[in-house]
Amino acid sequence: MMGSNYGGYGGSGMGGGMGGSAGGYGGYGGRGFGGGGGGGGGGGGGGGGGGSHSYGHDSGGGGGGFMSPDVGASQDSPSNRGRKNNSNQSLRPVLIKQVGEATQPIPDAPFVLDGEEISQVTIVGRVIAVSQQSTFATYTLDDGTGNLDIKLFINDDDNDEKARQRDAIVEDVFVRVHGHLRSFKGKTSVVAFNIRPVESPDEITYHNTECEYVHLFLTKGGLPGHGVPQQADGNGYNQQSSMYGNAPGAAMGAVDNGATPLQAQIISFVSQYGHTQDGAAIPDIVQKFRGQASEADIRNDVVYLCSEGIFYSTTDDEHVKNTNDM
Length: 326
Fold this sequence. Notes:
The protein is of the alpha+beta class and 326 residues long. Helix content is 30%, strand content 21%. This is Replication factor A protein 2.
C-alpha cells in the first residue's frame, strides 16, 4: 500500500484491508451506520477502496477536515520562513494513533507530527464513554487506532441549544471533534472547541483519506501521478491550504479549498474582529453582505462555517469569531 507507518493501520482501521478490520472503521459499519457484521465488512471494503487509494483529489470536500498549509515548501526556503506559526494554527486531520505519535520537544512547546508543528486537530471517532462534570465534559473516543479523551468546557452562559447538542453526544454516537492538543502529566488529550455528530458514514471514509493524504504529503511530498498545482512561490500544497488564517489571504485559501466567494469574504470580515472580545455580530455580517445574498443565505453560510470549525460562538449565538483567533 504505502510502505510507511500507515501500512500498519490496515489492521486497525486505516489501510487497504479495512473490510476485514473488526476494530477499525470497517467494523464501524455494523455499530453506528448500516447493518450487522456483514454491513460493517462492506462498509470497510468501500472505505478501503475509496479512502485508502484516492489520494489525488482536492481535499475540501464534505468531511469537514482541513489540510495544513505551506508544507510543499522547503523548511529553509524564504517562502517558508516566518510561516511556521500560521501552519501551526491550521486544522490538521489526524487519527488517534497519530496523536500518540506527536511529540512535544519541551513543555509548552508546539506538538510536532511528521515534521510539522500542529496545535489544532480534527478527529472522527465513536464515543465509548462520557463523564459530565459541573464545568466540563470528558468524552472518550475510539477510532479503531486507539482511544483518546476529549475535554469540552461548559460555560455558564451556554444557551439551551448548546446544552441540547451536548446531551445528544452519548455513547456509541460517532462524532467529529475540532480542538487543541494539550499535554498534562505526560498524557496527551484534546480540548475541544466544537463537537458534532457525524452525519454520514462517508465522512468517516473521507476523514481516513484526508489523514492519509496529509501524512503522505508531509513525509513523501505527494504521490506520483497525482500532482498538486504549483503556485508562484513553489508551495504546491498551498492551493489546498486550510480555510484558516488571517484575512485577506485566508479568504483566498478558502476559495481554493472549496468555499464559495461569499463564504471567503465572510471569513475575511470576521477575522477583522479577532482583537475584540465578542467577535463579529451576525447582524453586522448580514448588513455587510446584504447586497450579495439574502439574510437567510448569509446566516446559513455562517452556520456552515461554524459547523466546519472555522467560526465559534462567543457571548451568544449572534456573535462569532474565527477559531484562529482563540
